[in-house]
Automatic annotation (TrEMBL):
Name of the protein this chain belongs to: D-arabinose H(+) symporter
UniProt keywords, alphabetically: Membrane, Transmembrane, Transmembrane helix, Transport
Provenance organism: Paucilactobacillus vaccinostercus DSM 20634
One GO MF term attached to the UniProt entry: carbohydrate:proton symporter activity
PANTHER family: PLASTIDIC GLUCOSE TRANSPORTER 4
Membrane topology term: Multi-pass membrane protein
Domain of life assignment: Bacteria
GO cellular component, one term: plasma membrane
Family: Belongs to the major facilitator superfamily. Sugar transporter (TC 2.A.1.1) family.
Domain Major facilitator superfamily (MFS) profile: 12-447
Keyword Transport found: yes
SUPFAM superfamilies with a match to the protein in the record: MFS general substrate transporter
Transmembrane segments: 12-37, 49-69, 81-99, 105-125, 146-163, 169-191, 259-283, 298-320, 327-346, 358-381, 393-417, 423-439
Length: 461
């Protein structure tokens, strides 16, 4: 054991969070592929509902992938489940690229299965990183995961732009199949990663857990202290797990923890129903409609959105611990609402369309979303649920988040076929206002406050 070569901490953190690249890549890749797919399969893709299903099939699968992976990870380990996710992602990415001509149902089904891996990555990476990172770095590790996700989106947008000059029938296929490349990189990277110390302790492998901690901790005192904390937490969680067996999903909203469960699940749902993924999935088509140009010529706008997302994620890592959670997320939500509402108001008042005004304010929306609602939703969800109901409540929040993403991705093309784009975004703007009101009235502050203090606030309510 003494002669075993240590795994560098940077390697662990980089590949531990690399699953976010897969998550982000497949969120973004259809953005550029869809315009070419609509041209190649013009007759089959003329229906707005089918366009919505092809785009949002991944998020539909992710609803189930996240829940399934979370349960299996406790038995098989997070590392092994991330490996399985990478394999599934690779296989179904390649199958997406060989879809038969006009095979809309085939592509929808394949993307639903692909969503299993996307949902698994979203459920597995954050806890794996949290269980490996020192307490002083856990806030930034959440920021690192978010940065990986938006970097994956940016990479997908860049690849879409690079491949746009290929023949139409080949371009979208290569865009979708290229997702196998980061999946292969993840697989071979994770092969060298250790299992999380929390999982090892839960399975009685204390020596192995100590060895893993030695990779990412500075000295023996820190290792011993952390190992003791993990043992205590594991014992508490095992006791809580026994208690949770008597907790039904219905009882989450009727018991003494109702206030906190509604707050966490509500934030997760509002993050998606505010319309961010409508922009990320459909920006070329939005630009096509606004500027009256071909969607294939609008892919540079996707790259711009990706750059804004990455800048916003990096900004969050800088300011994460400098502002209160509620203040930051309410400020972001307010600016997001204004960004959606102003173009609709200006168009209504002047009686004239201002397409560039809409696109500029969409960029402002994306920037504020990137360093407020995007990362803070999962910070709040990770901090707000009491131990006794954490498993079921966190799973429910994740499911509502994916359901929101699926619904927005499915309905946006249907809504824009019936209403002007400005009106659709105005609807999302109103939802943003309700999100701010919800946070103001229903979500307690969690920054720098212990779980016991949060629960005490609940009792007072």
């Amino acid at each position: 054991m003494q002669n075993e070569k240590k795994i560098p901490s940077w390697f662990i953190y980089f590949f531990g969070s690399f699953g976010g690249i897969l998550f982000g890549y497949d969120i973004g890749v259809m953005t550029g592929a869809l315009p070419f797919l609509k041209i190649d399969w013009a007759s089959a893709m003329s229906n707005a509902t089918l366009v919505g299903w092809v785009t949002s099939g991944v998020t539909f699968g992710a609803i189930f992938g996240g829940a399934l992976a979370g349960q299996l990870a406790d038995r098989l380990g997070r590392r092994r489940m991330i490996l399985y996710s990478a394999i599934i992602f690779c296989v179904f990415s390649l199958l997406s690229g060989v879809a038969p001509t006009n095979g809309v149902m085939y592509l929808i089904i394949i993307r639903c299965f692909l969503g299993l891996a996307v949902g698994a990555a979203s459920a597995l990476v954050p806890p794996y990183m949290a269980e490996l990172a020192p307490a002083r770095l856990r806030g930034r590790m959440n920021g690192l995961n978010q940065t990986m996700i938006v970097s994956g989106m940016l990479i997908s947008y860049i690849m879409d732009y690079v491949f746009k000059g290929l023949p139409t029938a080949w371009g979208w296929r290569i865009m979708l199949a290229f997702a196998a490349v980061p999946a292969i990189i993840l697989f071979f990277g994770v092969l060298k990663l250790p299992e999380s110390p929390r999982y090892l302790v839960n399975h009685g492998l204390n020596d192995d857990a100590r060895r893993v901690l030695s990779y990412v901790r500075d000295n023996d005192n820190e290792i011993d202290s952390e190992l003791n904390d993990i043992k205590k937490t594991a014992a508490a969680e095992n006791n809580a797990a026994e208690a949770q067996k008597s907790v039904s999903y219905a009882s989450l909203f009727t018991g003494k923890y109702r206030y906190l469960v509604i707050a966490g699940v509500g934030v997760a749902a509002f993050q998606q129903f505010q319309g961010a993924n409508a922009i990320f999935y459909y920006i070329p088509l939005i630009v096509e409609s606004a500027l009256k140009i071909n969607a294939s010529d609008a892919l540079i706008w996707s790259v711009l959105q990706g750059v804004i997302l990455v800048v916003g994620a990096l900004l969050y890592m800088i300011i994460a611990e400098k502002f209160k959670r509620r203040s930051l997320i309410m400020t972001g939500g307010s600016i997001m609402a204004i960004s959606f509402l102003i173009p609709a108001i200006v168009n209504k008042v002047t009686g004239t369309e201002h397409p560039m005004l809409l696109l500029v304010f969409l960029c402002i929306y994306v920037f504020f979303y990137a360093f407020t609602w995007a990362p803070l939703t999962w910070v709040i969800v990770g901090e707000i649920f009491p131990l006794a109901v954490r498993g079921k409540a966190a799973g429910l929040a994740s499911s509502f988040n994916w359901i929101g993403s699926f619904v927005v991705g499915l309905l946006f093309p249907i809504m824009t076929a019936a209403l002007p784009q400005e009106a659709v975004f105005a609807i999302f703007g109103i939802i943003c206002i309700f999100g701010v009101i919800f946070v103001k009235t229903r979500v307690p502050e969690t920054k720098g406050i212990s779980l016991e203090e949060i629960e005490a606030q609940n009792i007072k309510e």
